[in-house]
Amino acid sequence: MLAPLLGATTGSLLRPQLVPHALPGRPASGVLAAPALAWLLVAAAGLTRALTAGFDDAPSGSGIRATCPEIILRQEVLKDGFHRDLLIKVKFGEGTEDLQTCRLLIKQSIPTGLFVDPYELASFQEKNITEAVMVSENFNIETPSYLSKESEVLIYARQDARCADCFQAFLPVHYRYHRPHSEDAETLIVVGNPDLLMSCDQEFPVLSCWAQSEVAAPCALKSKNVCQWSCLKYQPIHKNVTLHVPVGLSIHSSLVCSVTLLITILCSTSILVAVFKYGNFSL
Q1: What string of H, E and C letters represents the secondary structure of the chain?
Q2: Res 205: pLDDT
Q3: What average pLDDT does this structure show over 179-190?
Q4: What are phi and psi of 232, to 5 degrees?
Q5: What is the mean predicted confidence (pLDDT) over 45-70?
Q6: Domains in the chain, CATH or no CATH each
């Protein structure tokens, strides 16, 4: 048993000391302090190993993901009317390395209420306005929304000249014809956020940080080579983009049909009168 001994010298307290009591049959000595010190050292070493093991058992990517630059995607629709422009902007977080060796591909799903004109895309490609291609086959731009299917478009985004770590993509979209409603004169079209794909010629940390899967796609718009693109996880500004489309009311069907038929008859009659009055029927 160890006990503290207090002593006083010239009115001041002496520092406590630990003195071992002798066991029966053994002399009192300081030999017993060595096992106690060894035991303390072993306990400290065990605690250190436990703390180290706790860090080692943590997920290896947790430290990397904590320092990953955040990827922000903003999707908005420009212009008014039935002919709109879908603008997608992507910004990588501050501190990212040079993106000159990377390509960004946006896989956008087009809902049934919208369509993309492939002939318009071809014209824009010739004018170097945008780089996009339709993925879906058997696509009909004249089909109404209730008979059409969703389609997909691949858009090769371009780097923003005003922002070193920013990309943007542009896509013209158009409203389809919608079925008349009984009460509400408006319908909604929800445009979901796209898939973000990236391919780099050199190693880029953000790929290992946010890559979720690998997708095979053409390396460039007019290239036949296929590259492996990394599907990136990002933070969207808006969950979805909602478009409000005006539609007709079913109670107006009789009125609309009657007026349309009347105008068609009047126009046809005027054309026939002009043909017989000013036409040359000589053989």
Answers
A1: CEEEECCEECCEECCCEEEECCCCCCCCCHHHHHHHHHHHHHHHHHHHHHHHHHHHCCCCCHHHHHCCCCEEEEEEEECCCCEEEEEEEEEECCCCCCCCCEEEEEEEEECCCEECCHHHHHHHHHCCCCCEEECCCCCCCCCCHHHCCCEEEEEECEECCCCCCEEEEEEEEEECCCCCECCCCEEEEEEECCEEEEEECCCCHHHHHHEEEEEEEECCCCCCCEEEEEEECCEECCCEEEEEEECCEHHHHHHHHHHHHHHHHHHHHHHHHHHHHHCCCCC
A2: 66
A3: 85
A4: -100, 145
A5: 46
A6: 65-179+193-239 (2.60.40)
Q: Which residue has the higher pLDDT, 97 or 231?
A: 231
What are the tokens at 101? 């060796």
Alpha-carbon distances of 95 from 15, 165, 199, 207, rounded to whole Å: 57, 9, 19, 14
Task: Give me the pLDDT at residue 44, please.
Answer: 46
Residue 104 dihedral angles phi and psi, to the nearest 5°:
-115, 130
- With 70 as the cut, is the pLDDT of residue 206 above it? no
